[in-house]
């Protein structure tokens, strides 16, 4: 294109030159002066126009570290990707690039860039870039999290939100949540005074809540020996493998050699998960007796799995759903929804144990709102303002998904004045944005009070671009309504029913992080509960 313009300009200039030469030869000084000025103006204008067009077409790539030939910056990344990215942002600015193998990665670190990507150019960035491990555990992108942007994803997500997460359905599942939370409180009461792993406890409760809402039973309710604990191990393994840097992802030509064995490991873990899901579906189908059938005709009484199975049976439906798609969706909820919520509860407890004043304030609020002779009910939640602030502050300081789920633009575009090429892997480092002193006072302190003022400012549904624990745009987390209920309800019940101490009094609690697709604690939080409420009946 530029060479074409150059050719045209050269032709034009040369014809004027001939004319000018003729004028010069005739010694026509006036003509000569006019022509010289005209040529100078023309040349300047042409130069400006051409360079403006060229600049418009090719904004440069963002700045970034050089790295080594072939491997790029891979050898220099530490084990905590979110920290390494934050350090690089300090050097190269809020948007930078780095090559990891032969994959171009672009990292964004500011609310205005987040807005450009998640609002202004949301459709372009609504695609995912699944690692090899995700292709396996999503049944080849048949789930919601990893499916490509398009009508398949849209239908699945709409269906999921309508049949699992509408206010109506969530209200109906209230009894399941209450049953499981009360069961947990009783279990803790029975082991009072003994050390407990809060992460394990929260995971077990969240998993049971999810499974009861999904198919009216727990994993233990299956006819064989699968336990919630072994499911937690499988789920942890899936998350670990999803977050593990894998050479196959950075050098797709090497993928078939599976050099680190990530694909092999994921296939093995996934086989067990898949078998559990098959058993769940089969057990649910067995329940399809005449009595169940009658109940299943009543929309009000159906659980999510029953609804899915009904849709599958109706061949005339507009969006026929296969058994594999059902399993893919169940997995999103069981692995994605449970681990994030349980990890957030564990962090909230850890932060409060390190800042006993916040624990005291939360318990005082519970005593005021709930009363020491009552148990926490979901109806209390809207009044628990401090508790809500604790949850928000935890999601700020310890966002469960620190780099969100990486995005992949479907066409080349410009962000922050730089080119982001089609197919690049785009990370939004919300962990770093949540700790940026430009937007937060004393960002590394755990201070729930910051969320007590002007609550409208602290929306976390993706509209406030400096606070994005659930992401933003079309692919924002659809589980927010369930996550917020479960987080506060379980945390409030644990704090109202018990006082909590570290095993060794006065010990400094380890608050270090272990990076993964979900940001976990490096060491499990082990604490000892003591009775807080006056009446033993409140623990039944
Ligand atoms: C503390 C709890 C949770 C956190 C912090 C969290 C966070 C996130 C984040 C950051 C994303 C990616 C958003 C983006 O790419 O912009 C996401 C996606 C998703 N989450 Fe959650 N989540 C939580 C709980 C849940 C729950 C309880 C469920 C299900 C019941 C759920 C289901 C999903 C699904 C299906 C997606 C994929 C959405 C899509 O790609 O269209 N999440 N979540």
TrEMBL record:
Domain of life (superkingdom): Eukaryota
Gene Ontology MF terms: heme binding; iron ion binding; monooxygenase activity; oxidoreductase activity, acting on paired donors, with incorporation or reduction of molecular oxygen
Binding site for heme: 477
Keyword Transmembrane: yes
Regions that span the bilayer: 29-49
Keywords: Heme, Iron, Membrane, Metal-binding, Monooxygenase, Oxidoreductase, Transmembrane, Transmembrane helix
Family annotation (PROSITE patterns): CYTOCHROME_P450
Cofactor section: heme
One Pfam family this sequence matches: p450
Family: Belongs to the cytochrome P450 family.
PANTHER family in the record: FLAVONOID 3',5'-HYDROXYLASE-LIKE ISOFORM X1, OS08G0547900 PROTEIN
Protein name as annotated: Cytochrome P450
Organism: Vitis rotundifolia
């Amino acid at each position: 294109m530029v060479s074409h313009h150059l050719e045209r300009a050269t032709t034009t200039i040369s014809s004027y030159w001939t004319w000018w030469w003729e004028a010069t030869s005739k010694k026509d000084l006036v003509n000569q002066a006019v022509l010289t000025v005209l040529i100078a103006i023309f040349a300047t204008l042409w130069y400006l126009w051409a360079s403006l067009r060229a600049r418009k077409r090719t904004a440069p790539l963002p700045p970034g570290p050089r790295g080594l030939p072939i491997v790029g910056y891979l050898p220099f990344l530490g084990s905590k990707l979110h920290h390494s990215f934050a350090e690089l942002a300090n050097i190269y600015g809020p948007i930078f690039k780095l090559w990891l193998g032969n994959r171009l990665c672009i990292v964004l670190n500011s609310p205005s860039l987040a807005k450009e990507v998640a609002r202004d150019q949301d459709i372009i960035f609504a695609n995912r870039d699944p690692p090899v491990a995700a292709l396996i555990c999503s049944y080849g992108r048949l789930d919601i999290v990893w499916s490509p942007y398009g009508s398949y994803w849209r239908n699945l997500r709409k269906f999921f939100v309508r049949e699992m997460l509408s206010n109506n359905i969530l209200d109906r599942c209230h009894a399941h949540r209450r049953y499981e939370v009360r069961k947990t409180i009783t279990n803790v009461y029975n082991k009072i005074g003994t050390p407990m792993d809060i992460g394990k406890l929260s995971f077990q409760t969240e998993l049971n809540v999810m499974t009861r809402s999904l198919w009216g039973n727990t994993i233990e309710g299956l006819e064989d020996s699968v336990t919630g604990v072994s499911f937690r191990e499988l789920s942890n393994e899936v998350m670990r493998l999803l977050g593990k840097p894998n050479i196959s992802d950075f050098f797709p030509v090497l993928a078939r050699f599976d050099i680190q064995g990530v694909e092999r490991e994921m296939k093995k873990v996934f086989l067990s998960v898949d078998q559990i899901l098959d058993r769940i579906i089969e057990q649910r189908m067995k329940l399809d007796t005449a009595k169940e059938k009658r109940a299943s005709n009543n929309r009000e009484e159906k659980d999510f799995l029953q609804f899915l199975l009904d849709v599958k049976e109706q061949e005339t439906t507009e969006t026929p759903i296969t058994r594999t798609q059902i399993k893919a969706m169940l997995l999103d909820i069981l692995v994605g929804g449970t681990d994030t919520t349980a990890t957030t509860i564990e962090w909230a407890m850890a932060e409060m144990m390190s800042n006993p004043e916040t624990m005291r304030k939360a318990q005082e609020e519970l005593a005021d709102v709930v009363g020491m002779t009552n148990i926490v009910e979901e109806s209390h939640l809207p009044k628990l303002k401090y508790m809500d602030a604790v949850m928000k502050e935890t999601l700020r300081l310890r966002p469960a998904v620190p780099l969100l789920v990486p995005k992949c633009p479907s066409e080349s575009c410009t962000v922050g004045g730089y080119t982001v090429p089609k197919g690049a892997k785009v990370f939004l480092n919300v962990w770093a944005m949540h700790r940026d002193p430009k937007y937060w006072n004393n960002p590394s302190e755990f201070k729930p009070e910051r969320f007590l003022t002007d609550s409208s400012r602290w929306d976390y549904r993706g509209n406030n671009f400096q606070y994005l624990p659930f992401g933003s745009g079309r692919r924002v987390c659809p589980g927010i309504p369930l996550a917020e209920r479960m987080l506060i309800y379980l945390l409030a019940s644990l704090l109202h029913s018990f006082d909590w101490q570290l095993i060794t009094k006065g010990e400094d609690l380890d608050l270090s992080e272990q990076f993964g697709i979900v940001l976990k604690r490096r060491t499990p939080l082990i604490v000892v509960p003591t009775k807080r409420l006056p009446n033993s009946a409140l623990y039944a």
